[in-house]
Design goal:
Mean pLDDT: 82
Structural class: alpha+beta
CATH architecture of the domain at 2-17 and 32-77 and 101-130 and 162-209: 2-Layer Sandwich
Strand content: 15-25%
CATH topology of the domain at 2-17 and 32-77 and 101-130 and 162-209: Alpha-Beta Plaits
Number of strands: 8
Distance between the termini: 14 Å
């Protein structure tokens, strides 16, 4: 089963690549092989997972077992090497042993999150017109000292992506529980900003299922 979602950005946003462009830009956004912006599925999963946790917290509701089933209980790890029980430290694991359901067991989760990308028609048109560079701008910032003047060597230029619409999907081999899917759809509405420098106004957005 595949569930489609849409991210609408209302202002510039920065999903970092960890790279710089020499003396010109201190931080570049992450781009795909066609030089187009995207948000990795790993990032999307983390945001949705946190939003669902917040939803249960705000509603003072206990997080159900389905949360572990769908999202797992540890990011970027699977359940092939569970930790032994406290009273089983000296036991050598048998390959045929089933994964224990104790709290120390690591589970990856059954949901797959795609990258968030521009809609196909827009991607096609941008690459056809070689207009990818028009998706980006740069902003400059500096640190102000106690004397209300710019601190020396604090000027920083960051590449940002212009406001746009991205789409992603959540995929599951089996149909997601109707009640839990409703929770996910409500929870994504709690995500108001994505990317770095959110405390400086970047990345204001809205996510909804489509």
């Amino acid at each position: 089963m595949k569930y489609e979602y849409e991210i609408q950005f209302f202002n510039e946003w920065h999903c970092g690549s960890g790279l710089a462009a020499g003396a010109d830009l201190d931080a570049l956004v992450i781009k795909d092989g066609q030089h187009l912006p995207f948000i990795p599925g790993k990032t999307i999963k983390g945001l949705v997972r946190e939003a669902v946790e917040d939803y249960y917290t705000f509603n003072k509701t206990e997080i159900p077992d389905l949360f572990i089933k769908y999202f797992g209980n540890s990011k970027d790890k699977d359940n092939r090497n569970p930790q032994p029980k406290k009273d089983d430290k000296d036991k050598v694991p048998d390959e045929k042993d089933e994964i224990d359901d104790n709290i120390d067991a690591i589970r990856f989760g059954t949901l797959f999150f795609s990258n968030a990308e521009l809609p196909k028609d827009e991607r096609k048109e941008l690459t056809k017109q070689h207009a990818q560079d028009f998706m980006y701008a740069s902003i400059a910032s500096t640190r102000i000292d106690d004397n209300a003047t710019a601190s020396k060597t604090s000027l920083r230029k960051t590449e940002v992506t212009i406001p746009c619409k991205l789409t992603f999907f959540i995929q599951s081999e089996e149909e997601i529980s109707k009640d839990f899917l409703e929770i996910i759809n409500k929870s994504v509405g709690l995500i108001k900003r994505i990317g770095q420098n959110r405390n400086r106004g970047l990345g204001r957005c809205q996510i909804k299922n489509v």
